[in-house]
Amino acid sequence: EVQLQASGGGLVQPGGSLRLSCAASGFYINNYSLGWFRQAPGKEREFVAAISKSGNTRNYADSVTGRFTIVRDDDKNTVYLQMNSLKPEDTAVYYCNAALRGTNYWGKGTLVTVSS
After folding, report:
1. Is 90 helix (H, G, I), strand (E, B) or coil?
2. How far apart are CA 109 and CA 82, in angstroms?
3. What percent of the chain has pLDDT over 90?
């Protein structure tokens, strides 16, 4: 069974950091582009970050550039999102994605709450 299991979310104060993990099972991520998306309450899902299958190209939403870093570890079949200098507007459910041509896999999401 193909699965993407996101973890690492929680409650953090503004200015704090979290590292999200997304472990894949049932397939190998090495040929896939990987990404993170988020959905805040009452809003549509939006792009956060992506990394190419080689790991050489990374793209970020303007709102997180300079604060978030996406990293892949193909040996562990896992993609990470390091989030620093968190802001209340980063509060959302974060989802990981694996894409290869017409195939898209989604994880169930992990909740990040930034609040004092």
Report:
1. helix
2. 15
3. 97
